[in-house]
Queue: 2 jobs
Job 1
Amino acid sequence: NSKEKLGPQINYTITGIDAGAGEMSTTQTAIKKYGLDKKNWQLQPSSTSAMTSTLDKAYKNKQPIVITGWQPHWMFKKYKLKFLKDPKNVYGEAEHISTIVRKGLKKDKPEAYEILDNFHWTPSQMSDVMLKVNAGVSPKKAATDWIKKDPKVVAKWTKGVKKVHGQSLKLTYVAWDSEIASTNVIAQVLRDQGYKVTIQSMEMQPVWASVATKAADATVSAWLPKTAAKFYSDYKGQFVDLGANLDGAKVGLAVPTYMKNINSINDLKN
Ligand code: PBE
C-alpha cells in the first residue's frame, strides 16, 4: 500500500553491497547528510549478487526496496529502476571509469601502455558483455565474442601498435560485473597483441596498492571522481591516470519505478 510510510515497511534498511565498495561509504555520508540516521535508517552490507537477488524478490512481489544502484549494470536492463534525486549532490553528477597504470609502464611496455591509453568504450558496449556474463557465458568467452562482433572498435585501440612476443602483463580488478567485463575485454585485446596477461581480482584497496607498488601493471576499475576518491588521494603520485575508459557512469540510491511516491533521497524521511 503506497499510502503507508516507507521506512517501517522495509525496516529503515537500504540494501547495500560489499562493505569495501566506494558506494557504501558514499551512502554512509548520504545517510548523515540527509538526516536519515536520525530516523534510524541503516545500510545493510551484502554483495552485488545478494543485493540483486533481494531486489529480484521484492520486484516480483512489487514490494518496496531501496538499493545502492549504479550504471552501467544489467540491473537497469532487467528491472525498471530509477535513481533517487540527490539535491545535496552527495553522489556527484556523473562518474567515469579511469584506467590507472603503474609508474614506468610507458617506458617498460610502451605497446601495452598505448593500448591501455586508447581503451575507451561506451556503457552500452560494456552492458552487452555484462548481460552475456549474467546469462551464464564465461567472462573470457563473452569478451572474446564481443571483440569478434565489433572488431572496428578494438582496431581503434590497437591501431599502429606493434605486436609483442610473450611479455607478461598483470591486471588487477574488483569483481564487480562492470569490471569483470572491462578487464576481460582489455586482457583479451592485450593477449591478441602478444602479451601473456594474467588478471587477478581483489578488494579495492589492494587493487590500488598493487599498482602503486608496481606489483601489477594496471587496473581499468577506477570509478571517479567520487567512488574511489579515497584511494585516488591516498596513492596520489604513485600511479599514472590514463583517463576515462568509460564516460557516463552513475552511482546513487535506486528504487523500482513502481514506488511512485519516492523520487528523492529526501522522500525517505517522510
Ligand atoms: N560500484 C560499481 C563500485 C564501483 C563499480 C559502484 C559498485 C563501488 O566502488 O561502489
Job 2
Amino acid sequence: MADKNGKHGNASSILPDRATRGIGLEELVHVFWVSGMSCDGCSIAFAGASNPSMEQLQWGTVPGVPKMVLHHPMFSEDAGDDFIEPYRQAAAGTLGAPYIVVLEGSVPDDESFPTADGFFSSMGAGGFGPTPGGDQPNRVTEWLYRLAPGAIASIAIGTCATWGGIPAAAGNITGSMSLMDYLGKDYRSTAGVPVINVPGCAPVGDNFSETVITLLLWLRGVGYPPVFDELGRPAWMFDQTVHRHCPKAGYYEEGVFADEPGDNQCLVEIGCWGPVVQCNIVERGAQNHMGGCMAAGGACIGCTMPGFPDKYAPFYKAPPGSAISGGISKVYGGAIRRLRRMSMKTGNREPLWDNAEEIPSPWAAAKGPRTNTDKFAAYFYKKLQYNGSTHHGKRYKKQPLPKSRDILTQMGVDHSQSVDVLREKARSREEI
Ligand code: SF4
C-alpha cells in the first residue's frame, strides 16, 4: 500500500533475486485457462483488454514478449479431446514448453464430498491416466493441483479466484476458496513465484494483460522485476484507494453528495466504499480506458477486496465510517466550496472587463460592474496572492482601455443586419 501521502514505497518482494533464464520463453508460452466457480466475467474482461489486447498477446506482437498460446474453454478453436490434450500433457509434464496457469472463479471444496466422484465444477472427463477412459468428469480442483506445480506462474484472475469472492460468501454450500488458499502458503511456481492475484469482479482486463507481460518480460530477463504487494497483487495497480483517483473526489471534499446512483456528486451516502478500497478502475477505465464504476455513476462495493462481498454488504447502504467523514466534509466542505465559488467568479472575468466595469458577452449572468462584495473579497484575496511578489495587475491598473474594444458598437452597426450589410459597412470604413 502506498504511504499516507500516496507515495509508492519500496515494497518488499519474495520473488527470486534474479529473473529465471533458460526456461524456454524465447518463442512462446502456453496459457492454460481453468474455470472454477465462475460466471465467465473474467474471460469477458480479458477479451476486452486493450493495452495489450488478448489478440496482441496471441499474435506475439508485443516486443520482447513471447507469443501466447491460449487454451481457453470458450476462446479456443479446438474442442473435445483436441482441446483437452494439451492440458493433459502439461499435467503429465510432457508438454515440453513453458506454461502459465490462469484460474478464473473460485476453487470449490471437492474434498468435502464423501466419494471421489462428487464435484462442483469440472473440465473434460476420463481421469488423468495415460489412456483416459470413461465419462466421469474431471474435477477442476484436480486439474489445478496437477497443473500448478509445473507452471512458470499461476495467476488468479478475478475476485473469486483471488479471494473466494461470491461463491465463498456466507451461506454458500460449496466451501469455495481462493487459489492461494487452495494451493497453500508454500506454493511456488517453477520460477519461484507464489500465486499472483489480479482481483476485481469483474477485473479490469488490462490489469490482467499488463500483469502477464510484466511477468513474462521479467522472466525472460529483459524487464524489471514486478513489484507485488503483501497479497500478491501488482502493487502499482492496487496500492491506491479508488477514492484518491475518483472523478467525484472533488465533490466529496466539498461535501456535496448524490441522492441516487447516476448523480454527478460523490456516492458515499448511497453506499460507496471507495475511500477504503484498493482499486485502479477509475483511472484505468473498465474497458479501453472508458467507463469504470464511479465514472459511470455506480458506487464502489469493494469488489477487489479480500473481504468482498460479506464485509461490504449490504450493498448501497452508506458505510458506517462515512457518517463521520462525510459529516465533517459537509461542514468544512460547505465553507470551502463557497470560498472557491468566489474565486471562480473572479477568475471567470478578464482583467479587461474589470477595468471597463462591463462584460461584453451576451452569455454572462453578470454583465455589469463588480459588486462591492466582489471588490472587497478580491482586494483581500490579491493581498494574499501577491504577498512577497509583484502584482502586475496593480502596477498597470491605469492602463488605457483598448481603442478597438466593442468595435461593432463603435461602428454603429445594427447587429440584426445581414452579414452582407456588415461586410459592406466594413469595406466603406476601409475606403475612408
Ligand atoms: Fe470517494 Fe466513492 Fe465519493 Fe468517489 S464516489 S469520491 S470513491 S466516496
